[in-house]
Amino acid sequence: MKQALLTLLVLVPFPSLVNAEAPNVLLLSIDDLNDWTGCLGGHPQARTPNIDRLAERGTLFANAYCQSPVCNPSRASLLTGKHPHSSGVYFLSPDLKQAPALQNLDTLPERFAKHGYRTLAAGKLFHTGDKRFFQEYGGNFGGFGPKPENKISQPHGHPLWDWGAYPEQDQQMPDYKIAHWAKEKIESLPTTLDKPFFMGVGFYRPHVPMFAPKKWFDLFPRKQIQKPLVKNDDRSDLSDYAIALTNDKHVSPEHEWVVSAGEWEHAVQSYLASTAFADDCLGVVLDALDASPHRDNTIVVLFADHGFHLGEKQRWAKRTIWEDGTHVPLIISSPGYKSGQRTKKPVQLLDVFPTLLELANLPKDVEQEGHSLVPLMKQPTTAWPHVALSSFGKGNYAVRSEHYRYIRYLDNSEELYDHQQDPHEWKNLAGDKQFAEIVK
User: What DSSP character marks residue 199?
Assistant: First the structure.
């Protein structure tokens, strides 16, 4: 009976609840961006003026976390409103439409389309196959390319794992093309819309290969690069399982190799340069919106799908449920809400779907597993009883409150970090009896 009802819901379209005055939605994604932004202060040399100006015109969720530190499950979670442990999507496969628990669910753009929105996108919003979910898809414009004939910095390993100044011109980069596709679409919109739009714009940098033209590297002279703070014995209080989970059979380079090859500063420089380039592409889209007649009637959401390590905990890339692997930028600007707000309450990317439904005055979906962030947009310090829950694979969970991060792995080993005293998560307190009640 339940399956029959679900099938009926798929076949029968929602009645349109919107008109031309309904708010538009601009959903902006940046791939693999951690908290190395000016507004979050994750790295002192980060240059992200466009992310920062968006934060000034909306609400910055300073303690926002992904549901999984992997592209596919993180994006599937945000775009369906389901945790990985509910969907069964834990890794780069299965595709979200191959997961039985998700097959009959609307994704975020599909829900807006059913309520009368025009949906269009370019770049990476979903992990793959974005064309399936939008009425108009401009393409990925080359995705993670272009790539040089020979690798620049890491001669071995996965083809995507490389970094350095390449190619020569911004115009050769897919993100540049994606930004200008969005710019042209916004500029082509009539002053009076017959229906509101839901536009997705997904940028690929700073995801590996961490390439950008040389002019972006010149902003961060290699000899002046500040490396992340790393404690040499940081992993001495972790379980063998925790270390194996984040390192065994992963395609990213080992920290020991990056250091011994003299590439640590170069890799950090490449990440900063790639981020600055992505931020500039973001600025193209924001400028186009600001110059359009739709600036004051458009909800803007910016998110990154997960964090990224650049040596912290002797780790590179993502795939960890520590702070560096899960902490992400999340900014929401919406008509009628205050600008320049910042909240430290723990929130999740899972909360974006129900938030957009409320901001657009669409029906609440009781099946959503996240929580609308509208109360925090009204009052950033309001009581917030929720925590952020991240996972990597079955049975490995991290819970983030405003004060603590608690991790329990499949083998029942544990970690607890006091973020007020230990923002780098250097001291595991899980075995300290005085924190037994916190762990409980």
Answer: E
The residues near 200 (Cβ < 8 Å, ≥ 6 apart) are 27, 28, 29, 109, 119, 120, 121, 122, 123, 125, 130, 134
Cα(7)–Cα(264) distance, integer angstroms: 53
pTM (2 decimals)?
0.95
DSSP element (H, E) containing 24: strand 24-30
DSSP result, 284-313: HHHHHHHTSTTGGGEEEEEEES---EESGG
Give me the mean pLDDT over the 86-114 stretch: 95
Provide the sign of the torsion angle of the four alpha carbons 157, 33, 83, 425, taken in this order. Answer: positive
Q: What per-residue confidence (pLDDT) applies to 15?
A: 55
Helices 71-80 and 352-359: angle between axes, nearest 10 degrees = 30
- Is residue 175 within 8 A of residue 138, CB to CB? The reply is no
Q: Is residue 274 within 8 Å of 206, Cβ to Cβ?
A: yes
**Sign of the torsion angle spanned by Cα atoms 318, 332, 15, 2:** positive
pLDDT band for 328, please (50, 70, 90 cuts). Answer: very high
Q: Tell me the one-letter amino acid at 303.
A: F
Give CA separation, 426 vs 173, 288, 376, 421, in Å.
38, 43, 30, 10
What is the token pair recorded at 439?
């762990």
User: Using H for helix, E for strand and C for coil, what is the string for 104-158?
Assistant: CCCCHHHHHHHCCCEEEEEECCCCCCHHHCCCEECCCCCCCCCCCCCCCCCCCCC
Q: Can you tell me the distance from the alpha carbon of 63 to that of 344, in angstroms, rounded to the nearest whole number?
A: 5
Annotated catalytic, 250?
A: no
Residue in 83, 127, 255, 306 annotated catalytic = 127
Secondary structure in 3-state letters for 373-412:
CHHHHHCCCCCCCCCEEEECCCCCEEEECCCEEEEECCCC
Greatest distance between any 2 Cα atoms in the chain = 66
pLDDT band at 17 (very low <50, low <70, confident <90, very high): low
The single residue of 71, 83, 115, 266 carrying the catalytic annotation is 71
CA distances from 71 to 74, 164, 165, 212, 435 (A): 5, 23, 25, 21, 33
Rounded to 5 degrees, φ, ψ at 277 are -65, -45
Active site includes 71?
Answer: yes
Between β-strands 341-343 and 347-348, what pairing exists: parallel, antiparallel or unpaired? Answer: unpaired
pLDDT in tens, 51-76: 999 999 999 999 999 999 999 999 99
- pLDDT tens digit sequence for 354-374: 999 999 999 999 999 999 999
